[in-house]
């Protein structure tokens, strides 16, 4: 009988570099990316950490099948959560390599830049950014003209509002010492796309930053996930930063939904008065219910899309939201009357009451309705 020999694979070198790749429906792109990374990073101990938000196209399954054969490939499958920034943060925090990079799965980022970025960090830089806007870089065919305009405007806003000194703070392609991210991980926003901007403005000590030009290629397979909601979240992030983090992005979103609810309220009121022919009290009641339902649906779709309530929980959530808003209204009227008692200008009292009500509704619904 042949002797049985079990072959134990030699432990591979611990990676120096983790390449974190957030994915949503990128099953066709990841295998190509791994291939390109293998070539670009020859001689480097690297790994790829794909952070997939349970893509319907089965990206996680494809990546895990690769991981079963190649120890450089790892997959984090997140269920019930969505968000590019949050995925990148989780990927970076899951790494034990001293250096981490973030890049997109769709081949828009030029992997040939990775060795240069790595060299810059080995030579003492804390952060290396792939920039479309330093000499030699370009947004090539990767952006439509409207996206190009949007990207440039967002860049200008970031520079003015936050004093960020990067030529391309919107870039989703960078490499950083992991310890830098670990230090500020708790302060980073999980929403939106602006992970680099957020990291750079969160780190307070001076950093050595190197910017390297690259050409933003066009997407390989599939579609972009950057939509108007992402843009709204970006504006929210800027406001949140300007307020020194006092106002969370989620609150700003909640307040914007609330403002739209006022319009829904007025429209419903006129509808009930003029079209349904109700008396004022019933019309006002109808308008209040409409506005609360409107706010609930929008908050569930947008503000809390990462904790979206569905099925039976949609309805129980709606009931708790009605309850929260009713108490919020009592708080609103109470505070307004109290202020009006010693401050005769009605709009100041009214506005203070409304702000109180909004803060209360936000705080209470985040605990009762959309608890995490
Ligand atoms: N896990 C996860 N969850 N990944 C996501 C999500 C999400 O909710 N949304 C998008 N991604 C992944 C995509 O699968 C892709 O790998 C990467 O994030 C970038 O998404 P795209 O949809 O391709 O974004 P883009 O090309 O429009 O935007 C890119 O360019 C912008 C600059 O113009 C990104 O790199 C942005 O960060 C960058 O600001
Ligand atoms: Mn893309």
Automatic annotation (TrEMBL):
Keyword vocabulary terms for this entry: Glycosyltransferase, Membrane, Transferase, Transmembrane, Transmembrane helix
Limits of the GtrA/DPMS transmembrane domain: 254-370
Residue span, Glycosyltransferase 2-like domain: 18-182
Principal subcellular localization: membrane
GO biological process: glycolipid biosynthetic process; polysaccharide biosynthetic process
Membrane topology: Multi-pass membrane protein
Family matches, as InterPro entries: DPM1-like, Glyco_trans_2-like, GtrA_DPMS_TM, Nucleotide-diphossugar_trans
Localization terms from the record: Membrane
Transmembrane spans: 251-273, 319-339, 345-364
GO cellular component: membrane
GO MF term (any one): dolichyl-phosphate beta-D-mannosyltransferase activity
Pfam families attached to this UniProt entry: Glycos_transf_2 (PF00535), GtrA_DPMS_TM (PF04138)
PANTHER family linked to this entry: DOLICHOL-PHOSPHATE MANNOSYLTRANSFERASE SUBUNIT 1
Family: Belongs to the glycosyltransferase 2 family.
UniProt protein name: Dolichol monophosphate mannose synthase
Taxonomic classification: Bacteria, Pseudomonadati, Pseudomonadota, Alphaproteobacteria, Hyphomicrobiales
């Amino acid at each position: 009988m042949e002797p049985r020999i079990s072959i134990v694979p030699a432990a591979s070198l611990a990676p120096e570099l983790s390449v974190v790749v957030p994915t949503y429906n990128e099953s066709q792109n990841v295998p190509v990316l791994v291939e390109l990374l293998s070539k670009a990073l020859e001689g480097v101990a690297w790994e790829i950490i794909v952070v997939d938000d349970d893509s319907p196209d089965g990206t996680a399954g494809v990546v895990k099948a690769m991981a079963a054969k190649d120890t450089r490939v790892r997959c984090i499958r997140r269920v019930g959560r969505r968000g590019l920034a949050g995925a990148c943060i989780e990927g970076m925090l899951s790494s034990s390599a001293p250096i981490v990079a973030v890049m997109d799965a769709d081949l828009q980022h030029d992997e040939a830049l990775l060795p240069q970025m790595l060299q810059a960090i080995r030579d003492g830089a804390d952060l290396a950014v792939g920039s479309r806007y330093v000499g030699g870089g370009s947004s090539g065919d990767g952006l439509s003209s409207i996206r190009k305009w949007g990207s440039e405007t967002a860049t200008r806003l970031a520079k003015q509002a936050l004093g960020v000194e990067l030529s391309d703070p919107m870039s989703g392609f960078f490499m950083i010492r992991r310890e830098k991210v670990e230090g500020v991980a708790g302060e980073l926003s999980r929403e939106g796309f602006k992970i680099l901007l957020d990291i750079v403005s969160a780190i307070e000590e001076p950093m050595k930053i190197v910017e390297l030009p690259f050409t933003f290629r066009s997407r390989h397979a599939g579609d972009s996930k950057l939509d108007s909601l992402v843009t709204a979240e970006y504006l929210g992030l800027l406001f949140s930063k300007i307020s020194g983090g006092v106002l969370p992005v989620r609150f700003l979103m909640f307040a914007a939904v609330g403002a739209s609810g006022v319009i829904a309220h007025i429209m419903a009121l006129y509808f009930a008065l003029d079209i349904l022919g109700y008396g004022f009290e019933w019309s006002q009641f109808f308008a209040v219910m409409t506005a609360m339902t409107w706010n609930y649906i929008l908050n569930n779709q947008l503000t809390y899309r990462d904790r979206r309530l569905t099925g039976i929980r949609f309805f129980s959530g709606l009931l708790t939201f009605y309850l929260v808003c009713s108490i919020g209204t009592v708080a609103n009227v109470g505070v307004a009357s109290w202020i009006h008692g010693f401050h005769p200008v009605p709009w100041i009292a009214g506005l203070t009451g409304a702000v109180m009500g909004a803060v209360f509704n936000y705080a209470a619904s985040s605990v009762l309705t959309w608890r995490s």
